[in-house]
Design brief:
Layout: H1 6-14, H2 16-30, E1 38-42, H3 48-57, E2 61-66, H4 69-82, E3 91-95, E4 108-114, H5 127-140, E5 141-151, H6 155-164, E6 168-175, E7 178-184
Parallel strand pairs: 1-2, 1-4, 2-3, 4-5
Antiparallel strand pairs: 5-7, 6-7
């Protein structure tokens, strides 16, 4: 995954609350997670969305990962302001690359990737790296689990990859160049040809 420059980090951290509030409201209206769910957010930025998911869905575990240690530090500071008495035990922060997630297979009921997938490689138009990130997400997602994503680069190819791997896609929300979608992983593996 490509590291973000200082300008990118500023925009991710400075304007995330409003964006996270909008994203969380859309997710909440579209998605139900069973009690005891586990959530992973890749490219978590300052972890504002992960905190909202933890507060709203009460998962047993919500792991927020970002490649950059500086973003993890920004997330720690953000969570310290949000939770002066200490962050919920279910909420974890970890530095991790979405191209090599440090989790065993089938660990999460939901994976969130908001404006993160195009950062899988240094060239935002290199779909091979994005496909590698999708394969890692697929690996750690439980059967029947959901990928909730928003992106603006290669969204047609994102949907094609997901559909080709048996995911049911929908609902989809399109705004200007951005696309938000929920993609449900099949419960049963596809039969071998």
């Amino acid at each position: 995954m490509a590291e973000m420059n200082a300008v990118g980090r500023f925009f991710v951290n400075a304007f995330s609350a409003r964006r996270s509030r909008r994203r969380y409201a859309w997710i909440r209206a579209q998605l139900t997670l069973p009690p005891g769910s586990t959530i992973l957010e890749v490219g978590c930025g300052n972890a504002d969305l992960a905190a909202r998911m933890t507060d709203g869905f009460a998962p047993v575990r919500c792991v927020a990962v970002d490649l950059e240690p500086r973003q993890i530090e920004a997330a720690r500071q953000n969570l310290a302001r949000r939770y002066p008495a200490g962050a919920p035990a279910a909420l974890e922060l970890r530095a991790a690359d979405m191209l090599g997630l440090p989790f065993p297979p089938a660990q999460f009921d939901a994976v969130l990737a908001f404006e993160a997938l195009h950062h899988a490689g240094p060239d935002h138009h290199d779909f091979e790296r994005i496909a590698g990130a999708l394969a890692e997400i697929d690996r750690v997602l439980r059967p029947g689990g959901v990928l909730v994503y928003e992106d603006f680069v290669r969204t047609d190819r994102l949907q094609s990859w997901l559909a080709g791997h048996g995911y049911a896609i929908g609902p989809v929300l399109r705004r200007r160049r951005h696309e938000s979608a929920i993609a449900r992983k099949p419960r049963d593996p596809a039969p071998a040809p």
